[in-house]
Design goal:
The protein has a 6-stranded mixed sheet with strand order 4-3-2-1-10-11, covered by helices on one side. α1 (22-39) packs parallel to α2. By secondary structure, it is an alpha/beta fold. It has a single domain, classed as 4-Layer Sandwich (Purple Acid Phosphatase, chain A, domain 2). β3, α3 and β4 form a beta-alpha-beta unit. It has helices at residues 22-39, 68-79, 98-103, 134-144, 146-154, 157-179, 189-198; strands at 8-12, 43-48, 84-87, 107-108, 112-116, 119-124, 205-208, 214-220, 223-228, 236-240, 245-249.
Length: 252
């Protein structure tokens, strides 16, 4: 894609709509919709890089209640001709065609390579990459398994959603302290992952979410790792104007 003068590509992630309660989630959803309405004026494309929802599961005839504002805004954007790209996160990995059919948004399950104006991008949510975290990587294989998803779908929605939200809450409690601070380049697993990838192929920008901490880290003279942070604490996002990529914060 060639980004024309005056146009921009937006990257944002980790909205976690649905938590910690309905009122605060709704307030956050309205803020994100406001941001997307403003971005619509000059967006060449918009990337949502995972964990839009704190939990999402598409039953055969049912999708989770709520989120009508964000879903309506996404439909409005694609209907207007703006390309959107969605990457599943660890909280909303159980997509099953709804975004593709209803919203015309392609859904990706692994990091993807893009080229914009001669710049090479590797974009993904970021969960399960890099060294360590073997427990989660094992669970991810189970959660991604079609049989596991089918078995979960047998549960009545009220029961399945209740279990999922309790699991999600315990997961956030376990990582909350680490999410709040930079661990040092040797302990940041996505920095380690980027460096391993660079041994095989050059990328100008690595863009990930999942970490919940805005990070702009120089890997070498020609490559940067950007973590998009979240919209729970930071309202952070990245924007590429065709020449430069910048990590920014939305303060309406």
């Amino acid at each position: 894609m060639q980004v024309l003068t005056g146009k921009k590509i937006y990257f944002l992630s980790d909205f976690h709509l649905g938590v910690p309660d309905h009122a605060s989630s709704l307030e956050r959803e309205k803020l994100i919709v406001r941001f997307l309405s403003e971005a619509k004026e000059d967006a060449a494309a918009i990337f949502i890089v995972g964990d839009l929802f704190d939990f999402w599961y598409e039953y055969k005839k049912v999708v989770p209640k709520g989120f009508v504002r964000i879903l309506g805004k996404l439909a409005e954007l694609t209907d207007s001709g703006i390309p959107l790209y969605f990457f599943v996160g660890n909280h909303d990995m159980w997509m099953s065609g709804y975004f593709e059919r209803e919203l015309n948004i392609p859904v990706f399950y692994e990091p993807q390579h893009f080229e914009f104006n001669g710049k090479e991008f590797l974009v993904g949510h970021g969960d399960g990459l890099g060294p360590g975290d073997k427990g989660y990587k094992f669970l991810k294989k189970i959660f991604r398994n079609k049989m596991s998803q089918w078995l979960f779908g047998i549960l009545p929605p009220y029961m399945g959603m209740g279990i999922a939200h309790r699991f999600s809450k315990s997961s956030r409690a376990a990582t909350g302290e680490d999410d709040a601070r930079f661990l040092g380049e040797d302990k940041e697993w996505l920095i380690s992952y980027c460096r391993e990838v660079l041994k095989q192929k050059h990328y100008d920008y690595f863009i990930f979410g999942h970490r919940h901490l805005p990070i702009d880290f120089t890997l070498n003279d020609n490559s940067r790792y950007i973590n998009l942070g979240d919209w729970i604490r930071y309202n952070s996002y990245a924007v590429f104007d065709g020449q430069n990529l910048e990590l920014k914060y939305y303060r309406p």
